[in-house]
Amino acid sequence: MNDTNPISPVPLYIDGEYKQSSAQQWIEVTNPATNAVIATVPCATELELEAAIASAAEIFKHWREVPVPERARLMLSYQQILKDHHDELAELLSSETGKNFADAKGDVWRGIEVVEQAANIASLMMGETVENVASDIDSYSLIQPLGVCCGITPFNFPAMIPLWMFPMAIAAGNTFVLKPSEQVPLTAMRLAELFEQAGAPRGVLQIVHGGKEQVDYLLAHQTIRTISFVGSVPVAKHIYQTGTHNLKRVQAFAGAKNHMVVMPDANMGQVVNHLVGSSVGAAGQRCMAISVAVLVGKANEIIPALRTAMEKVKPGPSDDSKAAYGPLISPAAKQRVLQLIEQGKQQGAICEVDGSSCTVEGYPNGNWLGPTLFSGATTDMAIYQQEIFGPVLVCMAVDTLDEAITLINNNPYGNGTSIFTACGAAARKFQHRIQVGQVGINVPIPVPLPFFSFTGWRGSFYGDLHAYGKQAVRFYTETKTVTARWFDEDIPDGPNMTIHLR
User: Fold this and answer.
1) Beta strands 290-296 and 392-398, pairing class
2) Which phi and psi angles does 457 have, rounded to 5°?
3) Which domains does the chain have, with CATH numbers?
4) Which residues have a catalytic role annotated?
5) pTM of the model
6) Quick one: angle between helices 68-84 and 101-118, nearest 10?
7) 340 burial class (0-12, 13-18, 19+ CB within 10 angstroms)?
8) pLDDT tens-digit profile of 409-459?
9) Which of 102, 194, 200, 494 has the most CB atoms around it within 10 Å of its CB?
């Protein structure tokens, strides 16, 4: 962080205008492949934060009254514009995250899918009616927006995760204040520009920037009704505890330690391919990455084949079509993963493939880390206990499916898991007994499509209602129940009927 006025500052987006901040503190945004500074982002002042929230509150008074079909048509327009700019968004996203182009396109596309679901908002906001709950009395429920909602998003999915949040909230009739990660603010700003092009009214979306101080201000502000967050466990706990202490509705998605169980009868060719892709894809920087392979019985014999496959995988810059993934987000992130790899070796795990010394030609300053594979790991090792968030796969051996289920259920996290097997009975037992919110059967990364919800459990999620799908609509709305009675004798008829002319 520096205290000088930046040359190329990222603006704030307040009340429908792009405004240069008067902040005294600025954060450098770097390209992870080179660590060159590509922009600077402000730590917004309290006056700027207040202006964004006040604008959102004022606009809400009008936006909540906009007919639901009109809000749905805005999302229809937005999803088409996002598709038209798919490649452009992916290129911008790659520049600030280091993701390869295919991965960046996937990031954008998964966000577009949620916007498509937001276009279905009318059917998702339908209430319920019961006629004659008592004599001549009917009851019905109405689904109504809450007000100003807030989203705090991470570095690893700068398109997808903001699009998890503000389209659903705004389609439901709310207004939204977005605080994107200070490491990757550029994609969020472009999403806002395209939202404007789609016809979004002034002020329904506001974007502010900064770090912990700005987040804490948002968490405490009495006008903000909901907080949506995705990030690390310590921050998620802070967000949830602080937000709920301030009487807000909070959904905080935290860390993960996702296991893939491999049964002896599984198609081992498929297993190897999927383990490699799901562990090192996006440099392992995704909360649904498979970071632990639980090898049951003779499945442990795939280690040599897995080692050979991982040795062939190479990272590289976003424009290298042969690169499997890009760099880590920052030097600090790389150093943390290197320390965990070293701990793994010291604690007795076998390092089958070591990517610690990885280099990429032409990019000497990038945050590169090669694929790393451990076998013989145990539950008391740091490489098992901590979310590594790097291209590292840890293999553990057990004798039975029951042992595998117990191992996973004893882990504090519950984001995602999968099983590879040819046995339907084993798959059913696994999906029934496992205490994890998202389960794949011969699917390595079981992220639900947007007409479901992203349902992490236990230490991977703090809150009650999850992201996107029907649960998101419930998160961003409140239910009002009306009980109505009308009297037959009040019905006008005949010559006594009064006609009102306007």
Assistant:
1) parallel
2) -120, 175
3) 8-255+456-483 (3.40.605.10), 258-412+416-441 (3.40.309.10)
4) 287
5) 0.92
6) 160
7) buried
8) 999 999 899 999 999 999 999 999 999 998 999 999 988 888 888 888 999
9) 200
